[in-house]
Write a structure and sequence with these properties.
Elements lengths: L7 E5 L9 H7 L1 E5 L17 E6 L9 E6 L3
Antiparallel strand pairs: 1-2, 1-3, 3-4
Length: 75
């Protein structure tokens, strides 16, 4: 969810996912910039996704450390 100091977006890193798949990273990404507080995006991981860590970042603020990791584990 976009809160303060826009713009923000969510881009999954192709080099940092279990399959190293650019197509997979692109399918999870939301590259359009959010400019308004309260805007949100959602990403759904399919049940058959490879287990492991998926890193993502905000393009405009990556250098400032706006990054994250989602870890998919066996349930």
């Amino acid at each position: 969810m976009n809160n303060k100091v826009p713009p923000h977006n969510v881009v999954f890193d192709a080099a940092n996912n279990p399959t190293k798949s650019a197509d997979l990273a692109k399918s999870f990404s939301h590259k359009q910039l959010m400019m308004t507080p309260g805007q949100e995006v959602k990403t759904t991981f399919p049940e058959d996704i490879p287990l492991g860590s998926y890193s993502y970042y905000c393009e405009p603020h990556r250098g400032a450390g706006m990054i994250g990791i989602i870890t998919v584990e066996q349930g």
